[in-house]
Amino acid sequence: MHNSYSDVNQDLLSRIPQTASRILEIGCGEGLLGLAFKALKPDSISVGVEVVPENAQIASQSLDQVICGDIEDLDLSIPLINGKKYDCIIYDAVLEHLKDPWSVLVRHLDLLADEGTILACIPNVQHWSVLADLLNGNRPLSDQGLFGRTYLSWFTRNTILERFRSLNLFIYELYPRIFDLDQSKEFVSKLLPALNNLELDPQVVHAGMAPLQYVVTAGRLPKIPLFVEGFSTLQPTSMAEVRLAQPLRSLCSCPGVQATVHMNQMQLPSNARHVKRILIWQRPIFRLRQFDFDNIQKLLKSDYILVIDWDDDPDHWPVLAQDNYVSFQMVHAVQVSKPELAEMIKKWNPNVAVFPNMIERLAPLASPGVKSAGSGLRMFFGALNRENDWEPLIEDLNKVLRSDHDFWSVSVVHDRKFYDSLELPDSRKSFVPICPHSSYIEEMSRCDFAFLPLLDNRFNQFKSDLKALEAAANGLAVLASPVVYQASVRPGITGELFNSPGQMVAHLSAWRRNPDLVKEMGFNGRKWVAEERMFAYQVAEREAWYRQLADRQQQLNQELLARVPQLKAPISS
Predict the structure, then answer these.
(1) Cα separation of 42 and 527, whole Å?
(2) How far apart are CA 332 and CA 562, in angstroms?
(3) In angstroms, how far is CA 205 from the centroid of its own chain?
(4) What is the pLDDT of residue 508?
């Protein structure tokens, strides 16, 4: 069975609403799209319809139910899920193979929940390659492509819009899939004399001829557009990946929501009025100074709702207290990772939401015992500024490693001093410097368990359990201190906790005697994340909070100016 998530239509996958629980995929093929969505939302129920029996058999290994049959067969029955209609119905390169695709869509609308979404990937017969073939006297007929031998229907942008609207559907997005932009521009440029004679706008013509396909997102109910932007200047950039990019990718799967992340700089929109627009700024430190007043005023003038994302102890930065924590007062709202942070920040801003760190996507499923079978256990350690946390443990850890260096190996990311302190042959340890988050996860996924020591101090107590989540999502067991991780590590099931060097050694010794325990814990940890800690389970709450902030914009503006009256002054020149 395939378990690669890269073999699917990513433009469709990213638009399946992660609020959807019941998915119907028409023409599901081997079930790869449904399998990839389950990596984003494991508790979703996917039903596929497939006409090719061999494909249907393969898909049945991934999807919850597969119906083998022709969707134009009026006798083909598609059941509801426990009496409930589908939240999303998907057509990936299907409608062009039907004799009467619109009649099929009409019938399937009876299966769609009132707030459900229709998603379809549809080829564009206006594509420049079709006209190029015709001008050269060739009939564009082939086994694949826009005139595949099994195609029975053809579409352009205009016909897609007209037909979907004729079904009383609101079109939330019509996304063009363009794969050969330079070639399409070159083709249109060669047509310029003819386009001028025909009084056709070359830009309009190119916009119609460049897309090979369109992805249409539609539904019965209108959606008010919501724009959510993230902004970060923090290093390493992986900090923005886990607190901004990943949750916003999940959020913009919702119809009507667009999201993007800016690193280091952003350009304010010129026509932001009458658009609901949220800016999430990752851990900024504002001062009582004109420079910050001017920047905030410009954002307010562009109609932004300003939200700070904060995930550490504020008192770790004395400069915040020096200016009476104006960083939290100078914005409309604050989002945090832990309830303890929320209670602290509410003293300066009452509009605080708690969004615990989650996981965007599960790693492909691996059965227990397949990671490093026969080669011992590999430990992962990846962190910044943790020397005080691991130094009291390193002597005892090295005793364990030295006792059987053919069994133990270690992968270290970021912390060179920890790597140098490990008493293992170079062949049994590896080091990766600060790297992109994807490389960090890739290195982690090669290991069997994650080592997560934290001393019991105020700064650590405000940290989140993200590292344990990432380890579990990739099938690693966790060996951790109870600080931060006590609520997220289930001893003996997903990992072990230790309060002392002796307890740490005892757990490692038990794992040496029975390595399969570690692999089973990793398997259980992945299951725990799948059931409880996915961004998909948080999307509805995030969208609702951002929308209610946008709805209260006038009130929030008044409260903000009351907290920081200096923002009422004109912007300095």
Answers:
(1) 9
(2) 11
(3) 34
(4) 98
Evaluate whether 289 touches 295 at the Cβ level (below 8 Å): no
Whether the link from the prior residue into 123 is cis, omega within 30° of 0, is no
Burial (CB count <10 Å: 0-12, 13-18, 19+), residue 323: middle
Sheet containing strand 86-92, strands side by side: 65-68, 45-50, 22-26, 86-92, 112-123, 213-219, 170-177
CA gap 245, 265 in Å, rounded: 15
CATH 3.40.50.2000 for domain 377-532: yes
Residue 395 belongs to what H/E stretch? Answer: helix 394-403
Which residue type is seen at 505? V
| Rounded Cα–Cα distance for residues 256 and 367 (Å) | 39
Q: How far apart are CA 315 and CA 545, in angstroms?
A: 27
**Total Cβ atoms within 10 A of residue 499:** 11
Task: Assign domain 5-219 one CATH number from 3.40.1350.10, 3.40.50.300, 3.40.50.150, 1.10.10.10.
Answer: 3.40.50.150
Could you state, in order of their start, the residue ranges of all structural domains in the chain? 5-219, 226-359+541-568, 377-532
CB 312 within 8 A of CB 462: yes
Q: Which conformational region is residue 492 in: left (phi greater than 0), alpha (psi within -120 to 50 degrees), or beta? A: left
Residues 6+ apart with CB under 8 A from 257: 225, 226, 227, 228, 251, 543
Q: CA angle, 412 as apex, 407 and 415 as ends, to 5°?
A: 140
Structure tokens at 389: 């946390």
Render pLDDT for 48-79 as a digit per residue (tens, 0 to 9).
999 999 999 999 999 999 999 999 999 999 99
Return the DSSP state at 81: B
Residue 155 structure tokens: 């579409």
Token output for 504:
């740490």
- E strands along 329-474, which residues? 333-336, 352-354, 377-382, 408-413, 429-432, 449-452
The architecture (CATH level 2) of 226-359+541-568 comes to 3-Layer(aba) Sandwich (3.40)
Q: Is 84 helix (H, G, I), strand (E, B) or coil?
A: strand
Question: Do 377-532 and 5-219 fall under one CATH topology?
Answer: yes
Non-local (6+) Cβ contacts of 375 within 8 A are 409
| Torsion angles phi and psi, residue 561, rounded to 5 | -70, -30
Is 170 strand, coil or helix? strand
Please tell me the pTM assigned to this model: 0.91
Lowest mean pLDDT among 54-58, 149-153, 269-273, 477-481: 149-153
Task: Give whole-number Cα distances, 268 to 22, 212, 251, 299, 429, in Å.
Answer: 38, 32, 21, 8, 47
pLDDT single digits (tens) 104-158: 999 999 999 999 999 999 999 888 888 888 888 876 655 555 555 556 567 899 9
**Phi and psi, residue 413, nearest 5°:** -120, 135
Q: How would you classify the pairing of strands 170-177 and 213-219?
A: antiparallel
The tokens for 183 are 């070639």
Sign of CA dihedral 254, 255, 258, 260: positive
Report how far apart the first and last C-alpha atoms of the chain are (Å, whole number). Answer: 63
Asked if 380 and 480 touch (Cβ cutoff 8 Å), the reply is: no
Q: Which of 566, 83, 130, 82 is nearest to 326 (CA)?
A: 566
Q: What are phi and psi of 483, to 5 degrees?
A: -60, 125
